[in-house]
């Protein structure tokens, strides 16, 4: 019998894969932008771009899975506004995990920085070179990054609030490497 | 006796040096070689900017990027029936590099790369043209960033027709590091490859003057 009060194994794998990638991706972004121009900086940008496109691919699979496998409901006692904020945050996180790799990729391509994924293949050019569009996309990418950081923090703090303050099973429902199937 | 030997050696050395200097003169002096020595059959051509382009591709962060030089000039003396009498010389204004990214262009002009304040131009001269497959191979010397290295330009030739200039389409592969393009940390080829593919597609019209040192702007749009 399938659990309805916890996320399935694949959903959890998706979640923590993305979480792990973001844990590298976000600090790397802040570090690389201030590096002096040199091979090290180029290398970090190349890794950042590759991880970004990997996040995009995993998010696409994850979203397809999520649509066919609904999330378990929140505990009964959770206030209506909190339910709304939780779901809105999750929705926006999905949106950003999709959008950010795209603004990043297009920002690179419009600047004639073609993008290779881990040196395995080059992403086909979706747009031509356009410097002013590139600047706008770079600004959008940065703004999205700020929003993502706020949302990820809120998402994580809310999970910790549920676990340690409310002492409910919201975090447990997503924890990896457990066989927790939820309390009916 | 010893004095005589030293003198002989000295004269021979001087003669050799003069020969080398004469060979290198067009490169060092930045003057296009004249074609006085070539067969009268070979026609002298100068660059027809319209439709001419000088492009290159290189690899950055694992991906190829397309670039071009906006300003260059070329002189060609060539007769397809007697390729061995041909001569090619070209001068490229390195500051006119257009990689489709202004930041990268500025970086390329700095001392670590082309160092355009010290070496504003690259010069290619070929005095030895051979038949090669369906086309020709011009064995010449490229001087870039103060370093001269042999470079072979393989090309195909379309003769001029009434109302149409002659056309030379060719390519060469260079190793940027052989010319010191990319100093210090930039010698690392992990994220900026060392191989650079150069593609030449130039239109040539019969030359009027004997030498023209002006830089002529190629007018082909950037494919970037």
Textual characterization of the structure:
The complex is a heterodimer of chains A (184) and B (224). Chain A is mainly alpha-helical and 184 residues long. Chain A is 66% helix and 2% strand. Chain A is built from four helices and two strands; from the N terminus they run H-H-H-E-E-H. Chain A has helices at 9-33, 39-68, 80-110, 131-165; strands at 116-117, 121-122. A two-stranded antiparallel ribbon of chain A has the order 1-2. In chain A, strand 1 and strand 2 (121-122) form a beta hairpin. Chain A is elongated, with a radius of gyration of 19 Å. The radius of gyration of chain B is 19 Å and the shape is elongated. By secondary structure, chain B is of the alpha+beta class. In chain B, a hairpin with a 7-residue loop joins strand 8 and strand 9. The model of chain B is unreliable at 13-39, 212-216 and 218-224 (pLDDT under 50). The chains are: A mainly alpha (184), B alpha+beta (224). At the A-B interface, helix 2 of A face strand 2 and helix 2 of B.
What is the largest interface, and how many residues per chain? Answer: A-B, 21 and 22 residues
Number of strands of chain B: 11
- CATH architecture annotation name of the largest domain in chain B: Beta Barrel
Percent of residues in helices of chain A: 55-70%
What is the makeup of the main sheet of chain B? 8 strands, antiparallel, barrel
What is the count of structural domains of chain A? 1
Which superfamily, in CATH terms, is the homologous superfamily of the largest domain in chain B?
Answer: Lipid/polyisoprenoid-binding, YceI-like
Sequence of secondary-structure elements of chain A:
HHHEEH
Please give the CATH architecture of chain A.
Up-down Bundle
CATH topology of chain A: Fumarate Reductase Cytochrome B subunit
Task: Give the proportion of residues in helices of chain B.
Answer: 10-25%
Mean pLDDT over the full residue set of chain A:
92
Which term fits the overall shape of chain A?
elongated
| Number of H/I helices of chain A | 4
Q: Beta fraction of the residues of chain A? A: under 5%
Uncertain regions of chain A: pLDDT < 50 for 5+ in a row?
Answer: none
End-to-end CA span of chain B: 68 Å
Q: Which structural class do the helices and strands of chain B define?
A: alpha+beta
In total, the number of strands of chain A is 2
- Determine the strand fraction of chain B and express it as a percent band: 35-45%
């Amino acid at each position: 019998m399938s659990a309805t009060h916890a996320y399935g194994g694949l959903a959890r794998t998706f979640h923590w894969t993305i979480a792990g990638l973001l844990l590298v991706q976000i600090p790397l972004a802040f570090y690389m932008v201030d590096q002096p121009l040199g091979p090290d900086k180029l290398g970090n940008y190349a890794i950042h771009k590759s991880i970004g496109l990997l996040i995009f691919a995993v998010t696409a699979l994850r979203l397809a899975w999520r649509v066919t496998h609904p999330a378990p409901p929140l505990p009964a006692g959770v206030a209506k506004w909190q339910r709304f904020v939780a779901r809105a945050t999750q929705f926006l996180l999905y949106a950003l995990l999709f959008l950010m790799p795209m603004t990043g990729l297009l920002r690179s391509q419009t600047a004639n920085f073609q993008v290779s994924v881990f040196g395995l293949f080059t992403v086909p050019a979706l747009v031509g070179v356009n410097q002013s569009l590139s600047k706008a996309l770079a600004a959008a990418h940065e703004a999205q990054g700020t929003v993502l950081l706020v949302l990820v923090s809120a998402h994580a703090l809310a999970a910790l609030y549920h676990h340690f303050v409310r002492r409910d099973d919201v975090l447990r429902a997503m924890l990896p490497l457990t066989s927790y199937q939820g309390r009916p | 006796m010893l004095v005589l030997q030293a003198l002989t050696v000295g004269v021979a050395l001087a003669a050799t040096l003069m020969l080398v200097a004469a060979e290198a003169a067009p490169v060092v002096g930045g003057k296009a070689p004249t074609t006085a020595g070539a067969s009268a059959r070979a026609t002298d051509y100068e660059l027809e900017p319209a439709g001419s382009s000088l492009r290159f591709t290189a690899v950055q962060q694992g991906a190829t990027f397309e670039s071009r030089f906006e300003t260059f000039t070329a002189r060609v003396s060539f007769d397809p029936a007697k390729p061995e009498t041909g001569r090619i010389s070209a001068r490229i204004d390195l500051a006119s590099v257009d990689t489709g990214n202004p930041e990268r262009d500025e970086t390329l002009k700095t001392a670590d790369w082309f160092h355009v304040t010290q070496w504003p131009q690259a010069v290619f001269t070929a005095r030895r043209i051979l038949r090669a497959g369906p086309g020709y191979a011009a064995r010449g010397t490229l001087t870039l960033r103060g370093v001269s290295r042999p470079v072979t330009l393989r090309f195909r030739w379309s003769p001029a027709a009434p109302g149409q200039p002659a056309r030379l389409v060719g390519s060469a592969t260079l190793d940027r590091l052989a010319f010191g393009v990319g100093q210090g940390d930039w010698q690392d080829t992990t994220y900026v490859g060392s191989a650079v593919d150069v593609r030449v597609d130039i239109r040539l019209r019969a030359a009027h003057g004997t030498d023209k040192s002006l830089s002529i702007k190629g007018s082909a749009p950037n494919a970037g």
